[in-house]
């Protein structure tokens, strides 16, 4: 009998009971706005910021409306403005170039390697084109951060990290988000902690964070923050910084705090599932697994592999066969963007040069979500199905270009 997968690739786990209870308490209080505190009460949003900052060893943290908002705020706080060029990954998701466009910036795309990280040689060649790099740790793959920072520091390029897929991850023992001037995280449903929508921004520089807090819409209530710079830092900044409303509310913060406490446990559960898939797909002819360097402590909330140099018809055949068996794979190599997969040349509002080496990789990137509602047995089954269908297509037809 042909095995079929029954799980849902978009079904996350429920919010923990503790989060539901905390959310109910916020709703009963009626004080959902982060600055609507009574007496000495510390809001859920302020507590989340304190706890998140402590969890990554950052001085300051700001909770905001989305990961995209965290990125635009970081860029604004670093002075990125209209017409400024910003280096970023050719392989990332649409909110990253979108954030650059939102501040009036112009993306300069940097290539992707077969290991699905930013191409540091291509970066080195383009460092003279911009003052800021918005670095996306796309799908949780972390590049050699020691080398990246050495290159950017030498060129005077500011690094802002997009950690939408690396909350809880690290390179060489240093948490993702702690290498650059700012770290940006998303708490949207498909990321590592789930409040539907939401974002977090961390950093160590007092003036940067004072600007970010004012930008997020603190009015003159910034003294209610805790993971924030001293009040005197705001003396001038409070008059000079526009309010571009994008705060997080107490309801979302209440849901997130218990999830943040569980992040380490959840990361281990994700990685156990990832290893089952990786083991199951080892030695599949025509299929390239993505190496995971020793220095990379990842959180595998999704799984990627490459069908490198396959022709489009053969890749489409694999996707169709897997879909018929309940396995939803996404492809970054399609001619048109679909679902959440798009690529640098789909963002037509931003100019781009052809990038043949990256095109070759993108044409073979297959992506799969790995929600924690899948069991280890589910992952073993997914691997069996993918392995069988990739092998069938690979053996049956001429798949390479
Ligand atoms: C989800 C995501 C974002 C943006 O997060 P939102 O909270 O949805 O705005 C940024 N970068 C990457 C790579 C993402 O996947």
Descriptive notes:
- Helix 4 links the parallel strand 2 and strand 3.
- The strands form 3 sheets. The protein has a 7-stranded mixed sheet, with helices on both faces. The chain has a 4-stranded antiparallel sheet with strand order 10-12-14-13.
- It has 2 domains: 245 residues, Aspartate Aminotransferase, domain 2 (3-Layer(aba) Sandwich); 134 residues, Aspartate Aminotransferase, domain 1 (Alpha-Beta Complex), CATH 3.90.1150.
- It is an alpha/beta fold and 401 residues long.
- The longest helix has 21 residues.
- It is built from 13 helices and 14 strands.
- The mean pLDDT is 96.
Question: What's this entry about, in short?
Answer:
Helix content is 38%, strand content 14%. The protein is α/β, with parallel strands linked by helices and 401 residues long. It has two domains: 17-261, Type I PLP-dependent aspartate aminotransferase-like (Major domain) (Aspartate Aminotransferase, domain 2); 263-396, Alpha-Beta Complex (Aspartate Aminotransferase, domain 1).
């Amino acid at each position: 009998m042909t095995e079929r997968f029954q799980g849902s690739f978009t079904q996350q786990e429920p919010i923990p009971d503790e989060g539901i209870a905390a959310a109910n308490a916020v709703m009963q209080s009626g004080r959902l706005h982060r600055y609507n505190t009574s007496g000495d009460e510390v809001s859920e949003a302020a507590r989340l910021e304190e706890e998140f900052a402590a969890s990554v060893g950052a001085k300051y943290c700001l909770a905001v409306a989305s990961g995209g908002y965290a990125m635009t705020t970081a860029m604004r706080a670093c002075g990125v403005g209209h017409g400024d060029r910003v280096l970023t990954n050719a392989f990332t998701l649409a909110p990253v170039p979108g954030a650059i466009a939102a501040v009036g910036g112009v993306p300069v795309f940097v290539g992707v390697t077969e290991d699905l990280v930013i191409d540091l040689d291509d970066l080195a060649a383009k460092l003279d084109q911009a003052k800021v790099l918005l670095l996306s740790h796309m799908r949780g793959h972390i590049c050699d951060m020691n080398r990246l920072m050495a290159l950017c520091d030498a060129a005077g390029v500011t690094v802002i990290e997009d950690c939408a897929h690396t909350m809880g991850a690290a390179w060489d023992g240093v948490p993702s988000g702690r290498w650059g001037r700012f770290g940006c995280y998303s708490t949207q449903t498909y990321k590592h902690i789930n409040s539907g929508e939401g974002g977090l921004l961390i950093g160590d520089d007092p003036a940067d964070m004072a600007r970010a807090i004012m930008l997020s819409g603190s009015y003159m209530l910034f003294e209610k923050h805790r993971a924030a710079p001293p009040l005197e830092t705001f003396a001038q900044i409070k008059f000079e910084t526009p309010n571009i409303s994008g705060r997080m509310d107490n309801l979302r913060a209440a849901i997130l705090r218990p999830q943040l406490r569980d992040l380490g446990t959840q990361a281990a559960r994700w990685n156990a599932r990832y290893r089952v898939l990786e083991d199951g797909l080892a030695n599949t002819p025509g299929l390239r697994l993505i190496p995971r360097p020793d220095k990379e402590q990842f959180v595998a909330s999704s799984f990627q592999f490459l069908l490198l140099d396959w022709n489009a018809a053969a890749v489409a055949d694999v996707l169709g066969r897997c879909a018929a068996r309940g396995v939803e794979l996404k492809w970054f190599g399609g001619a048109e963007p679909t679902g959440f997969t798009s690529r640098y040349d789909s963002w037509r509002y931003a100019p781009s040069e052809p990038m043949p080496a990256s095109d070759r990789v993108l044409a073979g990137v297959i992506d799969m979500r790995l929600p924690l509602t899948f069991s280890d047995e589910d992952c073993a089954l997914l691997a069996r199905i993918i392995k069988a269908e990739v092998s069938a297509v690979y053996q049956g037809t001429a798949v390479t270009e």
